[in-house]
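Exam prep: given the inputs below (a chain plus zinc ion), describe the expected output before reading on.
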Amino acid sequence: MLEKVKELISEVESAVAKTDQEVENFRLKFVGRNNVINDLFDEFKSVPSEQKRELGPALNKLKNQAQEKLKELSNALNSQSSSVSDVDVTLPGTFGKEGSVHPISQTKSRIIEIFERQGFNVEDGPEIDNDWNNFTALNFPENHPAREMQDTYFVEKNPDILLRTHTSNVQIRLMNKKKPPIRSIMPGRVYRNEAISARAHCFFHQVEGLVVGENISFKDLKNTLYHFSKEMFGKETKIRLRPSYFPFTEPSAEIDISCFICGGSGCKICKQTGWVEIAGSGMVDPNVLENCGIDSTKYSGFAFGMGIERITMLKYQIDDLRLFSENDIRFLKQF
Ligand SMILES: [Zn+2]
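Solution:
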């Protein structure tokens, strides 16, 4: 009988189960109600007592081992089946689609970074403002033809309230609340009532800069924009100032940079001129300073403004403004 017990112990030890049925077969044989071990215990009662001393512990060992083994087989099968059905570790991983920063936001961040290193801070203001902040304080008198340069969206029933046509309203608000020295840039979205095309849109983004203090001269304006142009478009970049007109600056100048595509020899981007326009600028008109309660005999300042879309289009050679607001992933994921 001892031989039989030892045989069963080794059978239990080496048992494997690949299916639920095999686990069940093991259970029926060794643990179930009519299991083989119970039969042996029955037999045990009638063996001579000198055999019992060795047989007893062996039987108990068999019984315990069978119970342990059953748990082990059943656990192994469960974890195996869940890993087979839920996770195949040999498959490539799946990842969520990663978004990217919109090119306009990227350019805006880069512009802010360049000016912040020149000591500018960032100011913000409302997109809906009144006529005073958007036009009158900026030296656009009522019925002045300069207002027609910027087709404006007015809020219905109140012609005094409008969607800002430029971020210059933030300059007025800033000068009203803060006295010189001022050294700020104002990025933001602006609106104009224009037909949408590859070159024009009813909304776009600007960054304006304003510096007001004592002894601020045209030289400071030029140096600031020269530094910006080199940082933004490369060390070799040259700038050129052309006389221009804006109601809020006097004198005024358009800023051109040497074409960074052809290096000045002429190409499609610069229309064969070797130069591309990037900004408008000028010395703040004394009337504008006075409108904000700043003494124009003591302080002077310069201002500049550029379109973020325009800078982005130049930098990445994009030829259609509409791409920025169409949310076409094929376009956006290139940045
Ligand atoms: Zn060129």
